[in-house]
Structures are given as structure tokens and as C-alpha cells.
Recover the amino acids of this structure.
């Protein structure tokens, strides 16, 4: 038995690498690709796959937002999130969105294949480093407290913008990455400042770093 799969990542080289690995495994058949969340929805409409391997950071409709829509419209399609980030907010956001797996991009292809197999057969999969941390927090009774962080008031899109801004990206660069208008990013920044109780971009970055969303952007100065 083989499982049809759609690969979603905004980097062609990543999609090509994943496709090359999956085509060697008779359990999987790549039936489509997309470079953003909106494209993923269109491809799934056409192919009705068993699995979607979804990058969490996508331009336009991001991975978490796309997962919410996929789970709603294609209940038989299971989503495995592929992410560079292992912070609890991203993980919990993906799980709440309906993803059945969460794998780090640093993982080996063997682990990615294992995650896909487990999810395809009805299970759930978290990278070992993530599951270990969550178990420890549950045992300490601190997971609920961890979920009530300073960024809980932000939407998934605002969190994505904040991460990019905190990494030193300008509003224009963020707009280009997310395929949004420059004015839209500036509006997001103002809204985030109001929600987080800060008055400038430096304050936003401090909150992001303290919350573990990103590491300090070195010596780079925030730009407009």
C-alpha cells in the first residue's frame, strides 16, 4: 500500500530533496507540490492526498493557518509539520491547528520518513527533543503556565511577522518574504506594539527574545 503525499515548502531545493527521497520509498507517492499555504489548498483539492508535509513558515497563508483549513476541508488528509523552530508556541499552535506530526528540519530523512509512516497509519509523531521537553513540563506541572506567555494575544500571522522582525528583517523585507504589502506589515507592527504594551521596535524585539521566539539579531539595527 502506498500513501499519496503533497510536499509544501517555499524553497524549491527543499521540495526537490524531499521528493527525491520519497520517490525511493514505495510506501509514498508524491502527487503534488506547493510553495505556499494557498497553493497547498489548491493542490489538495485536486489530489485529495493521504498526507501533507507542510513547512510551518510560508509566505501568504502560513503552515499553521493552512493546516487549520486543510483539516476542516479535507478531514481524511493528515498533516505533518516540518519546521526550523522547536519553540513550544509553534509546536502547540501546530497541534491545536490539527497537525498529526511535528518534525524539525534538522532531523534526518530517516526520521522524516518514520514520522510520515506513523501518521499515515493513524498515529501521531513529535521529534524526540520536542516530546521529551513537553513530557518534562507536564511532569513538573508547568506546561499550562508555559502556554500563557506574553505572546498569547498575538495571532499566528502576527507571531510570524514578529519572528522575522526580531531576526533583523525590515518591514519591506518581511513584506517580500510573506508576499504582503509593506503597509500591511507596518500595520501588524503597530498592532503588536499595542497588544504587547511596548512603544517601539526595540521593545518588540526584546519581548520576542524573552519569549524564546528568536535569538537576538546580533548587531543588526532594526530598520523600517
Amino acid at each position: 500500500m502506498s500513501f499519496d503525499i503533497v510536499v509544501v515548502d517555499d524553497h524549491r531545493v527543499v521540495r526537490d530533496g524531499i521528493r527525491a527521497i520519497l520517490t525511493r520509498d514505495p510506501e509514498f507517492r508524491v502527487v503534488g507540490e506547493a510553495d505556499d499555504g494557498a497553493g497547498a489548498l489548491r493542490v489538495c483539492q485536486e489530489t485529495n492526498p493521504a498526507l501533507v508535509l507542510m513547512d510551518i513558515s510560508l509566505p501568504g497563508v502560513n503552515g499553521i493557518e493552512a493546516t487549520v483549513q486543510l483539516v476542516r476541508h479535507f478531514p481524511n488528509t493528515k498533516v505533518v509539520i516540518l519546521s526550523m523552530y522547536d519553540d513550544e508556541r509553534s509546536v502547540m499552535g501546530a497541534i491545536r491547528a490539527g497537525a498529526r506530526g511535528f518534525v524539525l528540519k534538522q532531523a534526518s530523512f530517516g526520521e522524516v520518513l518514520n514520522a510520515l509512516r506513523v501518521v499515515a497509519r493513524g498515529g501521531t509523531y513529535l521529534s524526540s527533543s520536542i516530546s521529551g521537553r513537553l513530557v518534562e513540563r507536564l511532569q513538573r506541572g508547568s506546561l499550562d503556565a508555559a502556554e500563557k506567555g506574553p505572546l498569547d494575544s498575538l495571532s499566528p500571522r502576527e507571531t510570524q511577522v514578529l519572528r522575522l522582525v526580531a531576526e533583523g528583517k525590515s518591514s519591506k523585507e518581511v513584506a517580500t518574504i510573506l508576499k504582503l504589502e509593506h503597509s500591511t506589515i507596518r500595520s501588524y507592527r503597530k498592532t503588536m506594539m499595542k497588544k504587547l504594551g511596548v512603544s517601539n521596535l526595540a521593545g518588540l524585539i526584546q519581548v520576542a527574545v524573552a519569549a524564546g521566539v528568536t535569538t537576538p539579531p546580533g548587531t543588526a539595527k532594526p530598520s523600517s
